[in-house]
Amino acid sequence: MIVVLLAAVVLAADGWVRSRAAGREYTATTVPPADVALVLGAQVYATGNPSPYLAARLDLGRALLETGKVKALLLSGDHGQWSYNEPDAMRRYLMNRGVPAEKIAVDYAGFDTYASCARAYRIFGVRRAVVVTQDFSVPRTVALCRAVGIETTAVGDHSQPHNGTYRRIWLRDQLADTKAVYSIVARPDPVLGDQETTVRDAIAADGG
């Protein structure tokens, strides 16, 4: 009985999240223009290199910038410990591939998707964005960003092989929809701080 109830909760949360995000995923070529792309962090290896999942997100963000779909990139990830730094690894990856530093803003306290969305709105002043994440995370990410006040579209990475790793991460992401519903309803405060102008500065920069 408990298992059935839990399954019903997860399915209901997943359905509600998907309804909030319906019709908002595009490809990198068809997405409507916006000032900024919010690229969400993922695993960085001990070498400092991004995982294939994160590298794919970054490549999509770079494509959006290079084709003029967005004017700046906001890289949001986990830097909760000095030994682990997603945003700097993301920035380094992009700069090594020709993205001008002045077109990049970073958020070091994007500890989860809700925090990334909430801080983009409350700390960085983002009001309209293209979010970039994996295909299976698009509904949850769009729903969370819309809930905090960002007019959101999305580009999802569909390039990863559907192997055991993919299936495990996919399942974990679906289960996270229940946490997303809580965040949408309760609106907990993320880690806050001083207002940042780096997104606005990156939008205004000419890119060298």
UniProtKB/TrEMBL annotation:
Domain named DUF218 is located at 35-156
GO CC, sorted alphabetically, is: plasma membrane
* InterPro entries listed in its UniProt record: Cell_Envelope_Assoc, DUF218
Q: Which CDD domains match?
A: YdcF-like
Q: Which domain of life is it from?
A: Bacteria
Spell out the Pfam families in the cross-references.
DUF218
Q: Which PANTHER family match?
A: INNER MEMBRANE PROTEIN, PROBABLE PERMEASE, INTEGRAL MEMBRANE PROTEIN
Q: What is this protein called?
A: DUF218 domain-containing protein
List the source organism: Nocardia aurantia
Upper lineage is: Bacteria, Bacillati, Actinomycetota, Actinomycetes, Mycobacteriales
